[in-house]
Amino acid sequence: MVEWRYSQGLTDYDTALITMEARADAIAKGEADELIWLVEHPPLYTAGTSAKIEDLVQPDRFPVYNTRRGGQYTYHGPGQRVAYAMLDLNKRGRDVRKFVHNMETWVIAALAEFNVKGEIREGRVGVWVERNDKPLTITGKPAEDKIAAIGLRIRKWVSFHGLSINVEPDLSHFDGIVPCGITEYGVTSLVDLGLPVTMDDVDNALRSAFDDVFETP
User: Fold this and answer.
1) How far apart are the C-alpha atoms of 119 and 154, rounded to whole Å?
2) Counting beta carbons within 10 angstroms of the beta carbon of residue 26, is it exposed (0 to 12), middle (13 to 18) or buried (19 or more)?
3) CA dihedral 89, 203, 109, 50 (to 10 degrees)
4) Is 134 a catalytic residue?
5) Is residue 132 packed enough to be buried (19+ CB in 10 Å), middle (13-18) or exposed (0-12)?
6) 180, 182, 193, 209: which one is catalytic?
7) What stretch of H or E contains 209?
8) What percent helix, strand, coil does the chain show, rounded to 5?
9) Which alpha helices (H) appear in 13-69, and where do they start and end?
10) Measuring CA to CA, which residue among 83, 52, 114 is closest to residue 207?
């Protein structure tokens, strides 16, 4: 059984870390159900295990948190849905590659609810959308923007951290970092794409897509 939790307002990041770690430990001990926790954070930057200090362009702009999740620098803030996934891979199969693929597939399926074609790219973490409304790149290929980030940690075969989808954040807040270490592509959101999507709409899409992607253990 997977519990779904929806937090109103802005969730303090330190509180989120403490809550996730405690829940992941309880799941590993068989003392708690799996949890999908949907939150928004105040503006902040997080550094994953592969973060490079030169990618923190404006270190004094927002609080910076060093985490032990995978990935590089990312931004969280109002208007962005963060979905923390505390799932038991002991029951779901100890296959990290498959699990990451399922997380990507989950985002893509949720975006498809709004007729947005999310895609993954070799060598680029996260989910991307082609921007045919923008000029071609210098290589002659369509421009692409990142719409969702994925960063995970697995301990005792229980996952925590998760994914973020840009619904209607202030996209200028991404200027303080090089998101995920990638300079040649931009960042977008559902509203930036011209879609009048609310946070509740995204929550419903995530909930609907979850069971189609993740098998019940």
Assistant:
1) 24
2) middle
3) -60
4) no
5) exposed
6) 180
7) helix 199-213
8) 30, 30, 40
9) 13-28
10) 83
Place of tokens 């597939």: 105
CB atoms within 10 A of CB 138: 7
Tokens read off for 132 = 């045919």
The alpha-carbon radius of gyration of the chain (Å, integer) is 17
CA gap 62, 31 in Å, rounded: 36
Total count of residues recorded for the chain: 217
Closest to 116 (Cα-Cα) out of 126, 104, 101, 128:
128
Structure tokens at 162: 């998760």
Nearest by Cα to 153 from 16, 24, 7: 24
CA–CA gap between residue 67 and residue 55 (Å, rounded): 15
Instruction: Name which of 144, 136, 129 is nearest 190 in CA terms.
Output: 129
Per-residue pLDDT of the chain (217 residues; tens, 9 = 90+): 899 999 999 999 999 999 999 999 999 999 999 999 999 999 999 998 889 999 999 999 999 999 988 888 999 999 999 999 999 999 999 999 999 999 999 999 999 999 999 999 988 889 999 999 998 888 888 889 999 999 999 999 999 999 999 999 999 999 999 876 667 788 999 999 999 999 999 999 999 999 999 987 7
Question: What was the pLDDT predicted at 180?
Answer: 64
Among 75, 96, 109, 78, which Cα is nearest to 159's?
Answer: 96
